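Extended Data, panel c. Modelled sequence:
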Amino acid sequence: MNIFLKIEETLQKQLPFVAYRKPNTSVLKGRFQKNNNLITSINYSESGFIFAPFDSSEKAIIIPEEQSDFYQEEITLNNNFIDDATYTADSSSEENHIQLVKKGVKAIKNKLFKKVVLSRKEKVEVSNFNLIQTFQKLLYNYPTAFVYVWYHPKVGLWLGATPEILVSIQNNQFTTMSLAGTQIYNGTTNVIWQPKEIEEQQFVTDYIIDRLSEICSEITTSETETIKAGNLLHIRTVIHGNLTTDCSTLINTLHPTPAVCGLPLMASKQFITNNENYSRNFYTGFLGELNLNTNKTISSELFVNLRCMEVENNTISIYVGGGITKDSDPTKEWEETTAKTITMKKVL
């Protein structure tokens, strides 16, 4: 059966499912749960598809390999979508976000932490929302991203196109990345980065290497590079190593990273909890394949849940944020979040 038809059929039956395509591939995969049980992960020891929230103290949801049907197919998409949906955006949050960023900068200057990632949720009212068409638009527009649609009748419906790997593990070898800094793409990746963005990305790299050195060996890093993700550019460093402990310890060590939380971790996370005034839910959590056994190789490939939206009937909640340092300009930070909403609004 065609996966898009399977999505429609499973949604009608109100059963959990996920459909996804990995970056730079043309294979669409789907995992469709046979019952509507809400199954949570115990220490990331299961096999299947994991969907984890930002708050690591909350349970991650798993669609287990043994309780689901798996489909995959090659897809070819053309840009022949009918744009019959219209939307109206909530524009009331600009002043709130600017004040939040000012508060964050002040806390950094008062040495409460070095960096904090502050986010917001923008609600968009949509007429004639079409799930399959929206998902296909995401797949078409963001070929270099991890693109997904995830549904559970007891949780909700989420879609996204994320550029960031949390970690990829094959047996005892892993790859992760440090991704930070944002510019709007204007036709070239040959751009100049400001000290604020360079510093922010280095914070993330140093933190990850420091944390991994306690549980990993032979850690190597790539040269820093500029990458394109949708209409945006970011600074990236790729990090490799050998795992000397289990998968669960590695995930718990990496999540949440400073790229979605801040530095030091606990102080910045507490500031987020106290000041963002909304729940991130699964935004800046992670998702992906967990402990799959393929050709005698146990592999996991997990992505940070960025550039995502939650769908409730015709109300779309778009989640966006940005890294704040002592040199952050609150107005520019607002503009950065606005640029990031374009990724999602482009497909509505």
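Residues 195-212 form the longest helix (18 residues). This feature is highlighted in the accompanying rendering.
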